[in-house]
Write a structure and sequence with these properties.
single chain; alpha/beta; Arginase, Chain A; 28% helix; globular
Length: 328
């Protein structure tokens, strides 16, 4: 754990001098960026830009995910003090990371929002940084994938979710239940390299679109390492994107979401699978569908913040981070 030279021990979101390192700041006070990273639109030398997309106009049930990025940032404060267990390293010792703030759009012109999200993400990755996006509902992943595919070509998609989000329609809908159908049809994702984990709503196996489906029952009956090995075997070595819909977790662990489905993963299962994905280097990542109005005791936003931190640990591991000796 390090202290930036010349800094006061508060409001690092504005006063931080370096983009790496962490130190203790009161979790209940100060400016709440994601894990106390500096708020900045300067992407010079940045490895990962955290950005929020406060959008919930495509939901089919309960709204409220527009408040998700704010809640995840607030919950992240208690996790921002240094090494992450059980990785035993601080990802920010390896990743120059900023909080880029939120994507701006006019809620009164909903048809223009997908292009605004795509342009927002394209600007970040065009500057050489990866994104960790805080949603917002799951539709936001679709324009994000469009931006990534424009740079990398078709992507492997690793999707943690209760729902497959591949409902077919005539096209043009802004709907968090059909965007991956569009992504497959448009060639944005490579379905034969894509995996959907935690699914527990009705689906027709004949309509897999070529994607591998690891339903919730299979996850419950498997060791986390086995699930991770299956994911790794499918995505191969090409560019891959990881999206985590918080409703992949059981409502007992994440009640604050729009379409909760019983029988989901525990937070331990989800985190264990992510940790077992060491070696996979995702070009982009997101955590979506946190709806704070339906949360209790910040359970959902806390889980989402921890998942986001784990995704950064995966990114740091790919860059060479390894466990460090901890003081006794």
């Amino acid at each position: 754990m390090s202290k930036d030279v010349g800094e006061e021990l508060n409001d690092a979101a504005f006063r931080r001098q370096r983009l790496t390192g962490s130190y203790v700041e009161a979790s209940y006070a100060g400016a709440l960026s994601f894990m106390r990273r500096k708020y900045s639109r300067d992407l010079t030398g940045v490895d990962v830009a955290i950005t929020g997309v406060p959008f919930d106009l495509s939901v089919s049930n309960r709204p409220g995910t527009r408040f998700g990025p704010e809640a995840i940032r607030r919950a992240s404060a208690q996790h921002s003090w240094g090494p992450i267990w059980p990785w035993r390293f601080d990802p920010f010792d390896w990743l120059a990371t900023v909080d880029y703030g939120d994507c701006a759009f006019d809620w009164g012109l909903p048809a223009e929002i997908p292009a605004a999200i795509e342009a927002h993400i394209a600007g970040i990755i065009g500057a050489g940084a990866a994104t960790l996006t805080l949603g917002g509902d799951h539709f936001t992943t679709y324009p994000t994938l469009r931006a990534y595919a424009a740079k990398y070509g078709p992507l492997a998609l690793v999707q943690f979710d209760a729902h497959r989000d591949v409902e077919p329609d005539a096209g043009g809908r802004i709907d968090h239940g059909s965007m991956f159908y569009y992504a497959v049809q448009e060639g944005i994702i490579d379905p034969h390299r894509s995996v959907q984990v935690g699914i527990r709503t009705c689906f027709d196996g004949e309509q897999s679109h070529g994607m591998t489906i690891v339903d919730a029952a299979q996850v419950h009956q498997s060791e986390p390492q086995a699930v991770a090995d299956l994911i790794r075997s499918r995505i191969g070595g090409g560019p891959a994107y990881l999206t985590f819909d918080i409703d992949c977790l059981d409502p007992s662990a994440a009640p604050g979401t729009g379409t909760p489905v019983p029988g989901g993963l525990s937070s331990f299962q989800a985190l264990s699978i992510l940790r077992a994905l060491k070696g996979a280097d995702f070009v982009g990542m997101d955590v979506v569908e946190v709806s704070p109005p339906y949360d209790h005791a910040e359970m959902t936003s806390n889980a989402a913040a921890m998942i986001a931190a784990e995704l950064l640990c995966l990114k740091a591991w790919a860059k060479g981070a390894r466990p460090v000796a901890m003081g006794g």
